[in-house]
Amino acid sequence: MDEAFKPEAYKFRSMSAEDIPFVVQMEQVCFTSPWSERMLRAELKNRFAHYLVLETETGLIAYAGMWIMFNEAHITNVAVMPQYRRRGLGRSIMLECMKKALVLGATQMSLEVRVSNQAARNLYSNLGFTSEGRRKRYYEDTGEDALILWNRDVLATIEELRA
Ligand SMILES: CC(C)(COP(=O)(O)OP(=O)(O)OC[C@H]1O[C@@H](n2cnc3c(N)ncnc32)[C@H](O)[C@@H]1OP(=O)(O)O)[C@@H](O)C(=O)NCCC(=O)NCCS
Question: 10: which strand partners?
Fold first, then answer.
């Protein structure tokens, strides 16, 4: 396994202002409609927003964000740099978000995903998310529909995965 992926060789931490240029790059590499620097900086001032980055000795390789309102968390973004995918990092950063959401009082979590994004749909399905609806032509760049996924019991999922 790659040296960078020994458990002690990477860590999750909250996103800071200094991370924004690297996160902008991740957005550009990972999404067809990337968030801008201005949008990401605004999130640092949003009291409902919580963003995590995954850092190795060589830099940031993944990030994820969510908004937490009362007992609901809503995932805004999840991205892993292409060369680091399929090593469990997307799952790890989602689990970090789920644990943080619980600590902050959210018991359930939602997100939108492109119908065609099978990689992400598999990731979320393995973490207890199921489809509860569809937003027609939600993505302006392609006109694609979004599925609205929910995990209605984040604690139960985390306990099941620990068992
Ligand atoms: C979706 C994404 C975050 C997954 O990250 P990752 O680190 O590769 O995911 P993991 O290695 O943790 O994979 C977890 C599970 O997701 C599913 N998965 C991940 N990539 C997949 C792929 N290319 N094809 C099918 N299933 C895939 C699998 O079920 C996988 O479990 P397995 O490896 O045991 O089969 C990553 O592909 C990405 O950044 N994509 C671009 C941005 C994006 O689409 N974000 C989601 C927006 S809703």
Answer: 56
Backbone angles phi, psi at 121, to 5 degrees: -60, -40
CA of 120 to the centre of ligand 1 (A): 5
For each successive 10 residues of the chain (163 residues), what is the average pLDDT? 66 97 97 96 98 95 97 98 96 97 98 98 98 96 96 98 89
* Domain boundaries, given as residue ranges, for the chain: 3-162
Instruction: Mark whether 124 is an active-site residue.
Output: yes
Q: Is 138 a catalytic residue?
A: no
52 vs 93: CA distance, rounded Å:
8
SS in 3 state form for 44-88? HHCCCEEEEEEEECCEEEEEEEEEEECCEEEEEEEEECHHHCCCC
The architecture that CATH gives domain 3-162 is 3-Layer(aba) Sandwich (3.40)
**What pTM was computed for the model?**
0.96
Please answer whether residues 113 and 148 qualify as being in contact, where contact means their C-beta atoms are separated by less than 8 angstroms: no
